[in-house]
Structure prediction request, 348 residues.
Amino acid sequence: MAVKERVFSGVQPTGNLHLGNYLGAIVKFVALQERFDCIYCVVDLHAITGPIDVWGGPDVLRQSTREVTAAFIASGIDPKKHIVFNQSQVAAHAELAWVFNCVARLGWLNRMTQFKEKAGKDRENASIGLYDYPVLMAADILAYRATHVPVGEDQKQHLELCRDIAQKFNNDFGESIRARGWGDAFFPLTEPLIQGPATRVMSLRDGTKKMSKSDPSDNSRINLTDDADTIAQKIRRAKTDPEPLPNEEAGLEHRAEADNLVGIYAALAEISKAEVLREFGGGQFSTFKTALSDLSVAKLSPIAAEMKRLTQDPSYIDSVLAEGAARAEAIATETMNAVKDIVGFIRR
Ligand code: ATP
Ligand code: MG
Prediction:
């Protein structure tokens, strides 16, 4: 049976949304609205997998959830044509994650690099939720039987796990799936959409680390809500090397910081890195950095202003989330009912 093409993706309401989230994820979310039915989720169940002092506790979580929702809308996501909601309002995510916990293998999860990075040295003290994060993510996607997931490069491994889970479920329950008229596969093997020049925006302080909400240094990232002076200052202070910019893309190899800044410019200007270097190659970083600041401010400040306007009306945002959740729930409940029948759970 042909599965309807559908896009799903999520952003955690943890800390400050940054340029990496914007270029690696949100810009893609906006573009995909033209071609697909899209479901964009503020993944609050994922947010609480970290330490409470990192995600900030109940009041901060509420505020961050509204802020990510505002960022979606301010960036151009249409919550009427598509679906925008927060994960915890649809119980199927957690419910399907349990079934998938029994499908996924320990050995698969033990290979996940995000857990290793986030748990750090103190692994014994990490939450079970942090370890199980990729299984919940598979449930998020497959509750809607989504076929395409736009994400940054860092999520590639989790998407592979999602496919492994779907495949094993389809195999383990193959007979039951066929008997219920679903053909050979109930879940699609979801495709990641990781494209463009900014699939992995790096920290401004360290070109080997990805820009992250959870980086303790605020200077490592450009937040969507930073004002023009802050953006200019962070870019001016961004780490570079003493060489001038190269004339060709090949010259960016082994120059992680230069490559990152050129990639950011390319993504914001919607041109290739080669085109950026045609304009700035051979020149000093200071000139390029000024142009990059101006471009960043021009692109981000209207979004920041709209986010500010939207977050001043929390009841409007909550109503968007509630309406989105009701529509999401209708789809996810259908999936869950089918899963229960396939697995053999008796239901009302
Ligand atoms: P955290 O550090 O708390 O995990 P995060 O910055 O990774 O936060 P997420 O909410 O986990 O943000 O990710 C939301 C989306 O943004 C995902 O699709 C992820 O792949 C993408 N993303 C995150 N960081 C980057 C980055 N530096 N460059 C490109 N895309 C990114
Ligand atoms: Mg992340």
